[in-house]
UniProtKB/TrEMBL annotation:
Organism of derivation: Eremococcus coleocola ACS-139-V-Col8
Stated family: Belongs to the ABC transporter superfamily.
MF-aspect GO terms: ATP binding; ATP hydrolysis activity
Highest taxon above the source species: Bacteria
Name of the protein in its database record: ABC transporter, ATP-binding protein
CDD domains: ABC_DR_subfamily_A
Alphabetical list of SMART domains matching this protein: AAA
PROSITE patterns to which the protein is assigned, alphabetical: ABC_TRANSPORTER_2
């Protein structure tokens, strides 16, 4: 089942089209990475899902419920972490979650149980200082705890890791990965390695269109390229190979890149053996998300 469905969403600010009839489905229990360059329209999409902005056309459903602009019924299924979460700095984390729980109508018992569980989950269980002294990473972690308070079916995080140092980013990514199975996570980012580390599914937004979407595993197979890097012993063999296999890339030194779709590792090795061409190594080039991104996004 898809927990979130966007169908033919069109959104413009004045003359500027931000989302040009985009459709997107987020499978339940996935960790879904929403990728786009700065200004691509990621926050706009999230605000549409939360009913905080109105699309000119299209439909959004959360857990099967249509989203209506200005009404927040479907938001009862959503936990939201904005890119810069705001808190009451004079409170402690526990006081803050207690306050949020009371606003949302949770019982005292549930607030206590849930707060303890969530503060431990985000590594703030032993933290007794006031929030005003928190680092940015700690605030993001508290923001995740707050967004999870109501046991949402969908957790939406707007660039939760982008402004953090590597350790802070790792902590956030570990938390998001750890809650897989408890809720579905949709998070936006422009850091491709973060997607690669934890996401099961992704979509790339570029110039108002979804230019790539699907499960990470399927996309890597679909866009896989058969490419080998060969390091030769004698540079004199380079010219010969380049004449035999058109389209080879000269990587400088004694390095060549073979990227012909029809050239198997076996055929290449056989050829090198037959012609007695010596090499230091042959390396199959793994497809990473950055290669994929470069193929689909206009630079
Ligand atoms: N209320 C608004 N009125 C006019 N233009 C807006 C408004 N909100 C956003 N925009 C513009 O829409 C475009 C998309 O903005 P958005 O914040 O959704 O992008 P983003 O992908 O989240 O970017 P970033 O990664 O920088 O946060 C930008 O060009 C932005 O300037």
């Amino acid at each position: 089942m898809d927990i979130l469905e966007l169908t033919n969403i069109h959104k413009a600010f004045g003359e500027k089209i931000i989302l040009d009839d985009i459709s997107l489905s987020v499978p339940e229990n996935s960790i879904f990475g929403f990728i786009g360059k700065n200004g691509a329209g990621k926050t706009t999409t999230m605000k549409l899902i939360l009913g905080l902005l109105k699309a000119e056309r299209g439909q959004i459903k959360v857990a099967g419920e249509p989203v209506t602009y200005g009404q927040t019924a479907s938001n009862s299924f959503i936990g939201y972490l904005p890119d810069v979460p705001e808190f009451y700095g004079f409170m402690t984390a526990s006081e803050y979650l207690n306050f949020c729980g009371e606003i949302t109508g949770l019982s005292k018992y549930d607030i206590k149980q849930r707060s303890k569980y969530l503060l431990d989950l985000v590594g703030l269980g032993q933290e007794s200082h006031r929030i005003k002294g928190y680092s940015r990473g700690m605030k993001q972690r508290l923001g995740i705890a707050q967004a999870l308070l109501n046991q949402p079916k969908l957790l939406i995080c707007d660039e939760p890791s982008s402004a953090l140092d590597p350790l802070g980013r790792k902590e956030i990514l570990d938390i998001l990965k750890g809650i897989k199975g408890e809720t579905t996570v949709l998070f936006s980012t422009h850091i491709l390695s973060d997607i690669e580390r934890i996401c099961t599914d992704l979509a790339v937004l570029d110039k108002g269109k979804i230019v790539l979407k699907g499960s990470l595993a399927d996309l890597k197979i679909a866009y896989q390229h058969h490419s080998f890097q060969v390091e030769l012993i004698a540079s004199a063999d380079k010219a010969h190979l380049m004449a035999t296999f058109p389209g080879l890339k000269d990587l400088g030194g004694n390095f060549l890149e073979f990227n012909q779709q029809d050239l198997s590792e076996f055929r290449l090795l056989t050829y090198l053996a037959e012609k007695q061409i010596s090499f230091v190594k042959i390396e199959k080039q793994a497809m990473n998300l950055e290669d994929l991104f470069m193929q689909v996004v206009s630079l």
